[in-house]
């Protein structure tokens, strides 16, 4: 603890030095949430209230609406909350400014962050020079499970360090019809989840061709095929169950997801009177990626190029990434971006519901490097996810699904390139 005090004091001093140079005239900063999860409660506790307390002259206003419509109407936000997976559409709109100079001016120490988060943001610039955002929250994959269903069917709970083949074996013991209810052992969700640790691009940057019909997706679809072959798993037109089947209906025993997302769902459900007896373990992997985390996914704050209040926006970023605020966020179950053992250890301590959970599993694996993003990633990703239906419902073989999806993705990219 003694080693952390000087760094904390230095951070406060640097922030104060920057604050002295910034105008204290009342301003309203418009903040847009772009395709990431930020509840109204989180907006209040992470952003609005701390900013109002430290900077009474700064008012944060959460704006809503489609990005292109906001741009056309001249209602461009000053700050955008996004993540590195959804950054390219912002780049296409020429919105993010390079924060390098503001980081230097404000003396924001990038060394305090988990290195993978800064690298993930650097990776958003093809030239690797610009810093188009600052990380403020990290994500990590985990396997969640319903303890009641494991108990009901007498199956031992999952443990850390499982492989996907282990999860499949557990699933086979839990996928069954009982008392008129079809229980599902494991919803495998999306194929790209399994490719996540491989730093595998969706699109070849040299040829602008999709990377779908490749060995990694073949291996993944072979796993999915075994899941769909379980008696009772595919029912009519239903082949995916998601959070509703897992948390709401409580008939799915296991599901992997981003930890902060599913923990948020569990806590919200509990608040709404739908409590679950759940726990979590490390994200499983294929054998050749055992012990590796999913790709680095970090929520970021970026300042738009046309904002008239760039320095005030930088004050918001400084505050949200300060040790004090990151500690508060960690205690309330947001994964910190700081490379600080004490802040990490505090995760979830303000949530009584998490006290008995294996939250250490979130931090056990280091996240994997991110592939170079491409402006057509999301279109290809959507087609990759649609492969599930082609297999489960339309009963197409893996070769056909990979070939047809590759062709569809290449066609979609070619169409978009002409626009």
UniProtKB/TrEMBL annotation:
Q: Which InterPro entries match?
A: Bact_solute-bd_prot1, SBP
Q: Which UniProt keywords apply?
A: Cell membrane, Lipoprotein, Membrane, Palmitate, Signal
Domain of life assignment: Bacteria
Q: Does the keyword Signal apply?
A: yes
Q: Does the keyword Cell membrane apply?
A: yes
Q: Which PANTHER family match?
A: ARABINOSE-BINDING PROTEIN-RELATED, POLYGALACTURONAN_RHAMNOGALACTURONAN-BINDING PROTEIN YTCQ
Q: What is this protein called?
A: Extracellular solute-binding protein
